[in-house]
Automatic annotation (TrEMBL), chain A:
InterPro entries from the UniProt entry: Znf_RING, Znf_RING/FYVE/PHD
The protein's annotated pathway: Protein modification; protein ubiquitination
Lineage: Eukaryota, Metazoa, Ecdysozoa, Arthropoda, Hexapoda
RING-type domain: residues covered: 70-111
Name of this chain's protein: E3 ubiquitin-protein ligase RNF181
Molecular function terms, GO-annotated: ubiquitin protein ligase activity; zinc ion binding
Automatic annotation (TrEMBL), chain B:
Family as reported in the entry's similarity comment: Belongs to the ubiquitin-conjugating enzyme family.
EC number: 2.3.2.23
Entry keyword annotation includes ATP-binding: yes
Enzyme class: transferase
Name of this protein: E2 ubiquitin-conjugating enzyme
Domain UBA: 161-199
InterPro entries cross-referenced by the UniProt entry: Ub_conjugating_enzyme, UBA, UBA-like_sf, UBC, UBCD4_UBA, UBQ-conjugating_AS, UBQ-conjugating_enzyme/RWD
GO MF: ATP binding; ubiquitin conjugating enzyme activity
Superkingdom of this protein's organism: Eukaryota
Keywords per UniProt: ATP-binding, Nucleotide-binding, Transferase, Ubl conjugation pathway
CDD domains noted in UniProt: UBA_II_E2_UBCD4 (cd14391), UBCc_UBE2K (cd23800)
Keyword Transferase attached: yes
PROSITE patterns: UBA (PS50030), UBC_1 (PS00183), UBC_2 (PS50127)
Length: 147, 199
């Protein structure tokens, strides 16, 4: 069985390392039930911009014969237009999607999330995932005991 | 106004006008100024709710940074609902705040507000007084919401008992809306409402 600190994803600070206040805040908010319960907790404001690296690596495509609109400006694509494709396959004008991802990290159409450069938010996401995993573990244990 | 915002609103406006919701009378959208920065929306109160039969007007302000920021929307028609301020008409709805996404449109937003009238979120209230009544006395909440729909939104249900109580306060010189708010707040107990108004 993993140790308590390992299980919680905690470790001692390295020599000269400063504590991560954002991470502490994320934990504090979750521990004290600022969210309805730990498993559906939401980040309390618009999530941060997409990571610069992730934005740089998005696929550039050329529209061939597409009949759809860019979901941001609602203008129809023309054949030969350059477009940016998100990992979820949604396609936008490069200028449209870059402006959006500079504000927040998810696809404006389906909310697929790109990574961010915000440590606090990434810690929050990790905590949330861990909480879901813990709940699944408890459910599995419960089912194996009572079924 | 920034070019993209005005252009997009124009495209949306066309889309809304062609939509089946407009054809069916569920939602309406009108221009208020020629700059495409302010519009007026209207939603029909959903069936099987206390808002049924009412028409609720919404003020829609489009920021220059639209669609990267949400439109600012509030109820102009007074409404008794846990997620709408009974004073200012401000709406507590996640997609108008931190859950906004640039692919949402005025049409989807109006439909979401209409859906909010069918399914209130009392745990995320905009109006604490209304939310408390919703939780503690759903029956009285429904009657009160129906009464407000009748008086302010043209709904069909006349609730004679409530009208009489409002009239009693009017006879004492209280302003009508103030009287209605006090009575609604104090679960239609005339004495407590009077006490609060004259204290
Ligand atoms: Zn576009
Ligand atoms: Zn997507």
């Amino acid at each position: 069985m993993a140790g308590y600190f390992e299980e919680m994803g905690w470790r001692e600070l390295d020599e000269g390392e400063q504590p991560d206040h954002l991470l502490h805040m994320a934990r504090f908010l979750m521990d004290f039930g600022m969210y309805e319960d730990n498993f559906t907790g939401e980040w309390p404001r618009l999530p941060p911009p997409a990571a610069k690296e992730a934005v740089k690596n998005l696929n550039e495509i050329v529209i061939d014969n597409d009949t759809t609109n860019c979901p941001i400006c609602l203008k129809a694509f023309n054949s030969g237009d350059k477009a940016t494709k998100m990992p979820c396959n949604h396609v936008f004008h490069p200028a449209c999607i870059l402006t959006w991802l500079d504000k927040t990290n998810s696809c404006p159409f389906c909310r697929y999330e790109l990574p961010t450069d915000n440590e606090g938010y990434e810690a929050f996401k990790k905590e949330k995932k861990r909480a879901v995993q813990r709940k699944e573990d408890i459910d599995t244990l419960h089912n194996s005991m009572f079924s | 106004m920034a070019n993209i915002a005005a252009k997009r609103i124009k495209r949306e406006f066309k889309e809304v006008m062609k939509s089946e919701e407009v054809a069916g009378g569920a939602i309406k959208l009108e221009l208020v100024d020629n700059n495409w920065t302010e519009l007026q929306g209207a939603i029909a109160g959903p069936p099987d709710t206390p808002y049924e039969g009412g028409t609720f007007l919404l003020e829609i302000k489009v920021p220059e940074t639209y669609p990267f920021n949400p439109p600012k929307i509030r109820f102009m028609t007074k409404i008794w609902h846990p997620n709408v301020s009974s004073v200012t008409g401000a709406i507590c709805l996640d997609i108008l705040k931190d859950q906004w996404a640039a692919a949402l449109t005025l049409r989807t937003v109006l439909l979401s507000i209409q859906a909010l009238l069918s399914a209130a979120e009392p745990n995320d209230p905009q109006d604490a007084v209304v939310a408390k009544q919703y939780r503690d006395n759903l029956c009285l909440f429904n009657l009160t919401a129906r009464h407000w729909t009748n008086v302010y939104a043209g709904g069909p249900s006349v609730i004679a008992d409530f009208n009489q109580k409002v009239q009693r306060l009017l006879d004492m010189g209280v302003e009508e809306h103030q009287a209605r708010v006090a009575l609604s707040t104090y679960d239609w107990e005339l004495e407590r409402a009077t006490e609060q108004l004259f204290s």
